[in-house]
Amino acid sequence: MSKIRKILRMYHHGRSIMSIAAQTDASRNTVKKYLTAFKDSGFAFDEVNALNDKELEDLFGKSKEKAPSGMMLSMLRCFPHVDKELKRVGVNRQILWKEYYKEFPDGYKYSQFCFYFNQWKARVNPVMHIDHKAGDKLYVDFAGQKMSITDKETGEIIEVEIFVAILGASQLTYVEAVMSQQKEDFVTACEHTLQYIGGVPDAIVPDNLKAAVTKSSRFEPTLNETFEDFADHYGTTILPARAYRPRDKALVEGAVRIMYTRIYAPLRKAVFHSLRELNEAIRVELELHNNLLLQGRNYSRRQQFEEIERHVLSPLPVLSYELKKQFHATVMKNGHVCLGPDKHYYSVPYRFIGKKIKLLYSSASVEAFYHYERIAMHKRTRGAHLYTTEDDHMASTHQFVTDWSKDKFLGWAASIHEDVRLYIHNIFDRKRHAEQAYKSCLGILGFAKRVGNERLILACRRGLSYGLYNYKTINLIIEKNMDQYEDSLFAGELPMPDHDNIRGEDYYK
Fold first, then answer.
1. C-alpha distance from residue 241 to each of 42, 213, 319, 414 (Å)
2. pTM metric for this prediction
3. Within 13 Å of residue 255, how many CA atoms lie on the same side as its CB?
4. Phi, psi (degrees; rounded to nearest 5) at 367
5. CA–CA dist 286, 305 (Å, integer)
6. Residue 474: what are its φ and ψ, rounded to 5°?
7. Which of 116, 176, 225, 370 has its Cβ near the most Cβ atoms within 10 Å?
């Protein structure tokens, strides 16, 4: 606006058009245009000079838009159909222009047709520019074109997927070849990405592939549980892109196109016999790409990452993520659940007997979940048809049975009296296997609760004196008097005592 004021002021002082153009560094036609507009306005110089910049712009700055011609209107009416047809496979602008030109022979040529179509496309479908914050998002995707490795023995060519990840702010890129887009390969590639950049961003933006999103939705997509567990382990968030909306992850889409030039092309003639060899070659080209200066700038992606983004990433956890698999099973009546792949049984709290639970297992651990609550965790054991049991998971009665042992019964007896302990010890000595004596010992020690410790001690002393070591002996001594006991003894209902093992005073009695 200051240049317009200067032109009008010089014209008001009687300067020529040539002189005004030279002094204001404007063309003669430009000077003529503003002077013509001034004369047509009908205002005096003082009136125009008193206008503010906005009013002066309304008077001189805006050119009158010409009404579109009939040829332009005809072409504009074709553009919605052109936009729709371009989404079909194999259809391009050249084909659609030929159809347009056949219908309108006096219409626009191909270059102008494309120019006006781009203008129309920008108006009806504008693109939003996003300023990426440092450490905010990591965009991940798989390339559409695959690479391949060759089996050294058979010569078979095996196609492999190419995983691409890029940080939003610095545009540091990571590329890795994997065997498939399955969950295991996808999560492993994401973990390698975080290790490559040396930190964790606030969010990871994947496509709607099954390894990341179980069920897509505009508002609440259902994430794959393993991928969500991976994000929880690293303290980040998953923000899936909208389905069929590539602009939500335009950065990684652009990175994929660049990788076709920077990695695919240099390696197109090389032959690789393993995934490791291919990834080593990819890493060399990737470093060249990340260290190459950005177009029109005096710094590279790597330099930009080191300066603005590395220090704002969250630190990596001490332990790497351990990929877990799922298995569903029903808790058996003995309080154990079978992990099918290993055929090994793990205990869970007995209150979940009969419930169907989910097992998450890795190479080192097995976790049991019921309604999203973890109810048990065990170290993984691969022994088939074996049991891993935690005592707290069992019912109190079961815990008591599993604790049975010779030492437990001897300790229990010793807590009552030494004579009781000696009697129990002698019972174990007369059995070939310790478990044969468990029920007898349990019945004898149970008398302490029924008749009291004192009567049990006396009964055990009497049993020791006769050299008879079983539950029936103690029961008769406690339940009956000695006369009835001796009647049973001589009637052959009980074995005769071993007099060699009876102490002298007891034998005298």
1. 59, 10, 29, 71
2. 0.51
3. 27
4. -115, 140
5. 15
6. -65, -40
7. 176
- Please name the amino acid found at residue 119: Q
DSSP state of 300: B
Q: What are phi and psi of 198, to 5 degrees?
A: 75, 25
The per-residue pLDDT for range 81-104, each reduced to its tens digit, is: 887 777 676 778 999 999 999 999
Tokens of 341: 């792949």
Q: Identify the burial level of 378 via C-beta atoms within 10 angstroms of its C-beta, where 0-12 means exposed, 13-18 middle and 19 or more buried.
A: buried
- Residue 283 CA to residue 262 CA, distance in Å, equals 11
What does the alpha-carbon distance between residue 385 and residue 194 come to, in Å, rounded to a whole number? 39
Torsion sign (Cα): 248, 251, 252, 256: positive
Closest to 388 in 3D by CA, of 399, 401, 378 = 378
Q: What interhelical angle do 93-103 and 110-124 show, nearest 10?
A: 110
* pLDDT, tens digit, 9 for 90 and up, residues 214-273: 776 666 677 878 888 888 889 998 888 765 555 556 777 888 888 888 899 899 889 999
Look at the chain and count its residues: 509
- What single-letter DSSP state applies at residue 248? G
**Are 199 and 314 within 8 A, CB to CB?**
yes
Please list the residues that pair with 176 across neighbouring strands: 163
